[in-house]
């Protein structure tokens, strides 16, 4: 399905029915296939919307500035258009940043957040590496840099790596560069504020590489619950859904439904 928001066609899928609702948000370089295992699983429990961010998948890819705030507005628009109210927002990587942005700006919108290895409150060690990635994405060897980023994000055992590489390479250079450029300013200027403003239950599931300062996150957001996937790189929704889906189930049963 597609809907236009501010003249931009946004692609998404919906499935399921029931009072429990979900919004799935892929990360940079992804598309809605990154949450296919979760759509199949959670659509049996309620109504789910699987979004494709502008610039990604089958959504329009205009030459423009891309930002966490802009993506968040698109996601709320899509949910409102489909009568998705009080969803559990499940975001992988940058999708988790958008989930926090939504929770801060629209406090009555989400029922809970699940952040899958999201770069929120980056550890200090991430700065230099990410600056190198950005420079590589801007250059003539864009394709090689994309493959390097995906390889660095995966474990050698990750079976999802070829598929992730394919979705990244299908994302235009101008989209990856603009979005990547916006990540660190958001982390510096918005992440703390969004974490402090969040009032709903939050689950953070970490993969093999540390992308968030979880101790600092917990100080800012006392309702934070953390977990760690076993044997998975960054794209854990694809790589280990047999771990991720039950963790989300448990989180909802203990924290989200209790609060509704």
Short account of what is shown:
Keywords: Hydrolase. The protein has one domain (2-255): 3-Layer(aba) Sandwich (Rossmann fold), CATH 3.40.50.1820. The chain has 11 helices and 8 strands.
Notes on the protein architecture:
- The protein has 260 residues and is an alpha/beta fold.
- It has a single domain, classed as Rossmann fold (3-Layer(aba) Sandwich), CATH 3.40.50.1820.
- Helices cover 47% and strands 16% of the residues.
- It is built from 11 helices and 8 strands.
- It has helices at residues 36-42, 68-81, 94-105, 126-138, 142-153, 161-169, 173-189, 191-197, 214-220, 236-239, 241-259, and strands at 2-5, 8-15, 21-25, 47-51, 88-92, 112-116, 202-206, 224-228.
- It has an 8-stranded mixed β-sheet with strand order 1-2-4-3-5-6-7-8, with helices on both faces.
- α1 links the parallel β3 (21-25) and β4.
- α2 (68-81) crosses α3 (94-105) and α4 runs antiparallel to α5 (142-153).
- It is globular, with a radius of gyration of 17 Å.
- The two termini are 30 Å apart.
- The mean pLDDT is 96.
- It comes from Bradyrhizobium stylosanthis.
Topology:
Layout: E1 2-5, E2 8-15, E3 21-25, H1 36-42, E4 47-51, H2 68-81, E5 88-92, H3 94-105, E6 112-116, H4 126-138, H5 142-153, H6 161-169, H7 173-189, H8 191-197, E7 202-206, H9 214-220, E8 224-228, H10 236-239, H11 241-259
Parallel strand pairs: 3-4, 3-5, 5-6, 6-7, 7-8
Antiparallel strand pairs: 1-2, 2-4
Helix pairs in contact: 2-3, 3-8, 4-5, 4-7, 5-6
Number of β-strand runs? 8
CATH architecture classification name: 3-Layer(aba) Sandwich
Distance linking N and C termini: 30 Å
Structural class per helix/strand content?
A: alpha/beta
**CATH H-level superfamily title:** Alpha/Beta hydrolase fold, catalytic domain
| Count of DSSP H/I helices | 11
User: What is the average of the pLDDT values?
Assistant: 96
Q: How many structural domains does the protein architecture include?
A: 1
Round the Cα radius of gyration to an integer and report it.
17 Å
Give the % helix.
Answer: 40-55%
Strand content: 15-25%
CATH topology: Rossmann fold
